[in-house]
Design a protein that fits this description.
7-stranded mixed beta sheet; 4-stranded antiparallel beta sheet; 13 strands; 14% strand; Aspartate Aminotransferase, domain 1; Aspartate Aminotransferase, domain 2; alpha/beta; transaminase activity; Aminotransferase; Aminotransferase_I/II_large
Amino acid sequence: MVSNKLKNITPSYTIGISSKVAKLQEKGLDISNLSIGEPDFNVPTKAKDVAINALNNNKTKYDSVSGVNELRHEIIKKLKSENNVDYDLDEIVVSSGAKHAITNTLISILNPGDEVLVPKPYWVSYPEMIKLCSGMPVFVDTDKKNNFKISVSDIKKHITPKTKMLFISNPSNPTGAIYTREELENIVDICIKNNIYILADEIYEKISYEGNFISIASLSNEAKDITITINGFSKSAAMTGMRVGYSASNKIIAKGISTVQGHLVSHPSTISQWCAYGALKYCSDDIDDMVKIYKQKRDLAIDMLSKIDCIDYVYPEGAFYMFIDISSLKSKLNYKDSFSVEFCDKLLSNNNVAAVPGIAFGMDDYIRISYACSEDNLITGIKGIEEFVNSLL
């Protein structure tokens, strides 16, 4: 018998879509895959060179549980210079990807039955991670007029004596929305008053197009103390397969995270960590170039989607997604359980375009597409969406 925990875990929609796409491609079909949140770049050469050099110099033995010291020092420099927040070495823990950093954090902080506020739409894995770590996800409705960013009034409706943590995805997956300083200050204030931790998922921080990005932990010493910042290298440095993320938190929480990690995995791959070190140390220009190209693709996606009747979208200020409102088409499509799943299934089977159904993010009237793909794939995919929408009208 498997654990009772698994009875309440929803399989990943994105993995399910990837499986469908793979089967269709095996049949020889050309699929415009707009479902994958993976950069269409390779790891920058200078970062790979550092990893290769580390391998050739046999840096393959056990290392510090919290991560290679050189990488952690470089993360500290980055957080100081780019995010305006000071951390000590024992407040940084490098993990096997941002997912792992989040899971370590939840194991370290949550007691059974603790409630975690999860704004909708949410990244697909948040609720399942919380449940696997014995917490209870509490879904918080947000307003489209505010680009689905959570507000103080939204939070107040759901605070109970069991509320332990609030998740903030900034820039947001799936919407690409970015919080202003004032919005974050108001959120921090209510969390401080109610002893609520903030898990700040800032994995898309580098991919920001509008103004200066504000890290929650930088707002004040009190904000820093209640915030666990999650970041990594999958999105900014295209290191998805290398699996390197990190958390920055106060010393007590960081010690807990390190203790958990020490028993579960010891530490992340040393060679991957050296690659991440190379990305931080030598590849800022490469990352900036990637972001410029993402912005061009975002603008292209906006231009094309704006010309399609009966759909709308959240204007993305960061990340590399478009969250598309398809609610006006609901009466045009027969569906049994989920409108967005049926929409995406028909879009894939009829027009060879893969998108993620909004129900994966808690919003069944939406779909998500990624523009972290080739320009040709993006153009073909959005044209396929337009053709499918027109076929329903």
